[in-house]
Amino acid sequence: MEWWEAFKEWFLSLGNKYNVNPYIFGGIYIGAIPFFFLSLGWTIKKIRKKKSFVLPLLLTSFFFISAYLYLLFVGKNIPVWVYVFIGIMIAYGVYSTFIKIKSASKN
Question: Quick check: is 9 in a domain?
Fold first, then answer.
């Protein structure tokens, strides 16, 4: 469990370094997961019924990036690579969500 203590120490140190509360970031990150999947399911259901899916899609997108929004708005001294990483994560999330919605809408 030495690796766990090292990870915990590193993770908590990020709070001071970037002026964010790591527990809030982690809570938003973990807490948004069920809402992401619920809104994704809602989006797919709306598409299958050929109804407007704008609101569920916007909610799905929001839940996907909510923890990163916290980091971007509250954080200080965030290195450029973090912005690049967040951009890559968002692009991948958009792509994978698009693929899931596209394949589900064909059924």
Answer: no
